[in-house]
Amino acid sequence: MTTMAQVICGLARRWCFGALGSPLQVPCLQALPLHLGRTATRASQRDLENAVHQVKLWKKDPGNEVKLKLYALYKQATEGPCNLPKPGMMDLVNKAKWDAWSALGSLPKETARENYVDLVSSLSAASEPPSPAKPAADGEQAGGDLVVTSENHITTITFNRPAKKNAITTQMYQDIMLALQAASKDDSVLTVLTGNGEYYCSGNDLTNFTDIPPEGPEEKARTNAILLREFVDCFIDFPKPLVAVVNGPAVGISVTLLGLFDLVYASDRATFHTPFGPLGLSPEGCSSYTFPKMMGPSKAAEMLIFGRKLTAQEACAQGLVTEVFPDSTFQKEVWTRLRAYTKLPPNAVRTSREVMRSKGRERLHAVNAEECGALQQRWLSEECTSAVVRFLSRRGKL
Ligand SMILES: CCCC/C=C\CC(=O)SCCNC(=O)CCNC(=O)[C@H](O)C(C)(C)COP(=O)(O)OP(=O)(O)OC[C@H]1O[C@@H](n2cnc3c(N)ncnc32)[C@H](O)[C@@H]1OP(=O)(O)O
């Protein structure tokens, strides 16, 4: 049985772009701009580690050709010449990796290390510096994958990866936590989450699973569980009303979290989908507790276990959505209403929010911990890894 870790571990663990592009695009490796003749300074092990770290910071995918070359050089530098058996013809990804590594022949480890460092250095010089999103303060603060604005006593956190249907990357989880921390202290009355473009959010970015650390997939599952727990804790503990302006389809964690929101306004184009069954996953975001409480155990099971996708109207009937608006007037109606709410006495709003949330808070933390523990196991399961590999390979990401 092939696990995702076996498929991608060696390839992806050292760079954050995840797995290799389609093997059908495997390049002519000789065409890469290597500085094979460099002798003035030898690259040390530390240089190699720094270069690996540098690759993790790249925002732009360097493409299959470069990723293959980096993989091959890294393997040669750390393990020496390839002596693995050649993978079968149908094992496209592993064959591409094997070909790249084998093509380096008996290149000495030191030279491979030097070539890796040189390649990263030349590519880093040509690429833009990373621009992490900043938390909100006054006015617009952040660009990139997350945009945070503060205006008229409303802090708005916008998922801004429309080309990826606003899938949430590891960096975005961190940035959302920072933005919530800042919003909890700013002068806003309401905090809004919304999406830019056609989607509200397509959930966890499934390529997050491919960035496997050298310690292996267990370590990845452990750190993911910590990240998820901290992330959901921020929503549980957030002291002000949280509003979701669901502009389009919502998937996965962007749906489950809605049980922790105070208001959920949806366009009639929005859908609500938690495909945990097909993905070999289990619920998160406290939905195993909030959904049955809000819609009854059977409707919750249909969504969370069997992955039934709800329309906005259905989600409203189940209590997950507060109100549905025609898409044509959605933005205008919702923002007008939210601006009116900000005129309410802020201390009264905050006090009401606190008395409503305080009773269930401890329970929510316990549920969050339990869900993250279950997911830590799920992420390592064959059911989950195969589902993720299926998604990534269909989209040419493996
Ligand atoms: C700390 C860890 C916490 C983990 C907790 C959360 C669990 C979850 O959230 S589980 C849910 C995960 N999400 C999904 O399973 C959705 C996956 N995506 C899809 O099914 C489809 O992309 C979608 C139905 C959203 C849209 O389909 P299409 O309209 O056909 O568009 P494309 O598939 O072509 O998508 C365009 C572009 O976006 C990329 N994309 C979309 N969603 C994701 C995603 N979740 N992760 C990574 N990438 C995603 C997709 O690959 C396409 O990319 P390109 O091929 O590069 O254009």
From TrEMBL:
PROSITE patterns listed in its UniProt record: ACB_1, ACB_2
Major site of localization recorded for this protein: mitochondrion
Pathway: Lipid metabolism; fatty acid beta-oxidation
GO cellular component: mitochondrion; peroxisomal matrix
Compartment(s) of residence: Mitochondrion; Peroxisome matrix
One example GO MF annotation: fatty-acyl-CoA binding
Reaction it catalyzes: a (3Z)-enoyl-CoA = a 4-saturated (2E)-enoyl-CoA; (3Z)-octenoyl-CoA = (2E)-octenoyl-CoA; (3E)-tetradecenoyl-CoA = (2E)-tetradecenoyl-CoA; (3E)-nonenoyl-CoA = (2E)-nonenoyl-CoA
EC numbers on record: 5.3.3.8
Domain ACB: 44-129
Keywords on record: Acetylation, Isomerase, Mitochondrion, Peroxisome, Phosphoprotein, Transit peptide
InterPro entries for the chain: Acyl-CoA-binding_prot_CS (IPR022408), Acyl-CoA-binding_protein (IPR000582), Acyl-CoA-binding_sf (IPR035984), ClpP/crotonase-like_dom_sf (IPR029045), ECH/Chromodomain_protein (IPR051053), Enoyl-CoA_hydra/iso (IPR001753), Enoyl-CoA_hydra_C (IPR014748), FERM/acyl-CoA-bd_prot_sf (IPR014352)
Similarity field: In the C-terminal section; belongs to the enoyl-CoA hydratase/isomerase family.
Function: Able to isomerize both 3-cis and 3-trans double bonds into the 2-trans form in a range of enoyl-CoA species. Has a preference for 3-trans substrates.
Protein's name according to its UniProt entry: Enoyl-CoA delta isomerase 2
Biological source species: Camelus ferus (Wild bactrian camel)
